[in-house]
Amino acid sequence: MARRVLMGNTAVAEAVRLAGVQVVTAYPITPQTVIVERIAEMVERGELKARYIRVESEHSALALVYGAAAGGARAFTATSSHGLLYMYEMLWWVAGSRLPIVMAVVTRSIGPPWGLHSDHHDALTVRDTGWIIGFASSVQEAFDMTLQAFKISEDRRVMLPAMVALEGFTLSHTAEPVEMPDEKSVSEWLPPREPLPFKIEPGKAFAVGNTGPDEVTMELKWLAWRAMERSRFVIRETDLEYAKRFGLRSYGGLVEDVYAKGSDYVVVAMGAWCGDLKEAVEKLRGEGYRVGLLRIRYFRPFPWEELREVSQNAKAVLVIDRAVSIGHRGILGLEVSSAIGDRVPVKNVIAGIGGVDTGPEDFYSIVKTFIEEYESGSIEGWSIPEWYMPWMGVVSK
Amino acid sequence: MREFLILSRGGQGGVMASRILASAAVLEGLWAQAIPEFGPERRGAIVKSYLRVSDAPIARHSSVRRPEGVAVFSSKILELIDISKLAPGSVPVLVNAAKKPELVDRDVYYIDATSIALKLGLVIAGWPLVNTAMASAMARVFGIAGLESIVRALGEYFRGKLLEANTEAVRIAWDSVMR
Q: Which structural domain, as residue segments, surrounds residue A232?
């Protein structure tokens, strides 16, 4: 086990190297670019024996790994923001063809205006495509989640592509200590990919993505849905197995529970700022507030069972969102409400859009306000989201 | 947890300095985090880098709002931004300058890191690379890590002649901080 100080992007590249990826496609976009640059250096030095292919667009970056995975290879690519949007069509093709592929999405806001910093709009915009979507909250987790993504994605019970979202700059360019297992123990745990569910090769006639009757279209969708349901178990199992095998921590499967179970107030959030939120929650607990954090690690499959369980005896739930569906609520807020139903009031706060810096003091104020509102009787049932914009002088509705 | 701020110009290596210090702290068994605050800037623009060091895992990822020490990689930066807005009160400041900068009501340390870099030929595209000398001076002034840890940390980032020159810069800087 080596302990090194790595940036999030470098940690993802290290996970790709340890996974023995065979095909990598590269198209640069900030803040992802460092991932494919590091991989290029690894290939150049002979540390990773992969075909490294520079392509002319993100659409082609995904189309090419689609072909590579259909040919039986373990394949990887990475992108951000507009790059992910440009891949949109191919995202459906890859997932619909049930091909295991891992892609890092270094989250970055979507224009206009052009911005480099993170929110969650890019990764959440592709939620219906059939990809597994995980959100890391530290550099260590970005590493662990990338490595585990290969295992989960290629599992016979799953066979779906997996996306690892890590926040631009906040994780991608931030250096933190990372514990990494060695190459040999990783290759024992993650042997070369078995070319399942099918393999296209020269000389064998085989059709992928052919036309089909309506019933087949529906059946394939149902099969992908079932596989995603099964992935819940595979994700939980992989999290535990990985922790045990490499002496690293288990995060808790689809969610990480930080005092949430049994608390009166449950805060739900996702991504790197959960560390800041955790500090705020700990401070409030120190002041006697019965509040906990449920961090969503996987957005797809969505952890509705965990949410229902944790919120069962809660008085109210607060969802802090880094993406909004204009015309409705925050995207995570919507998902949490749909999982919990009307059993518990769910307040939704939108914050940190475009990368707006949100620290422990902000979360302390957001969470404390929520608890006070509930206790004074002003939170019931459905509410429109609040926008946390302290520079405007108010938290505006 | 201890938090520091580095103000540098794009090209001076402020981000690398925070990484070297993070590595040195981790070598001493601590936890650390180095965060760059990039905008769409290029060479010459003012870049903020944050450093956190702690004896426990660091949860937060937001910017450093109340640093306990600030390093300024070019004295010209002091003419461009109001340091009291970034580090109010008596927060000590370490400046790369040939003579002591005039800042009232706070501890001011200075080091001629530019001369150290020039003497050792640490120049890229016309920019003296003051980051390793400044990292060493920061470690000394703010008590972030020991000299030998900084030297060891350099090995994670440099090789060959560059490693030699930077090691020399770190050793010279350790004993060149003035007050």
A: 2-246
Q: How do the pLDDT tens digits run along chain A, 397 residues long? A: 678 999 999 999 999 999 999 999 999 999 999 999 999 999 999 999 999 999 999 999 999 999 999 999 999 999 999 999 999 999 999 999 999 999 999 999 999 999 999 999 999 999 999 999 999 999 999 999 999 999 999 999 999 999 999 999 999 999 999 999 999 999 999 999 998 778 999 998 888 888 889 999 999 999 999 999 999 999 999 999 999 999 999 999 999 999 999 999 999 999 999 999 999 999 999 999 999 999 999 999 999 999 999 999 999 999 999 999 999 999 999 999 999 988 899 999 999 999 999 999 999 999 999 999 999 998 877 788 999 999 997 665 5
Q: Is residue B179 part of a domain?
A: no
Question: Inter-chain contact B61–A360, Cβ cutoff 8 Å?
Answer: no
Q: What SS3 string covers B22-43?
A: HHHHHHCCCEEEEEEECCCCCC
Q: Are A172 and A189 within one domain?
A: yes
Substitution target in B5, B37, B47, B61 with the highest count of A β-carbons within 10 Å is B61
Parallel, antiparallel or unpaired: strands A255-258 and A291-296: antiparallel
Which residues, 6+ apart, have CB-to-CB distance to A385 below 8 Å? Answer: A321, A324, A329, A330, A333, A348, A349, A350
From CA B143, how far away is CA A25, in angstroms rounded? Answer: 44
Is residue A81 within 8 A of residue A31, CB to CB? The reply is: no
Q: Which domain holds residue B121?
A: 2-174
Given A198, A215, A246, the domain boundary residue is: A246
In a domain, residue A319? The reply is: yes
Q: Chain A within 8 Å of B33 (Cβ-Cβ)?
A: yes
CB atoms A174 and B32 under 8 Å? no
Count of domains forming chain A: 2
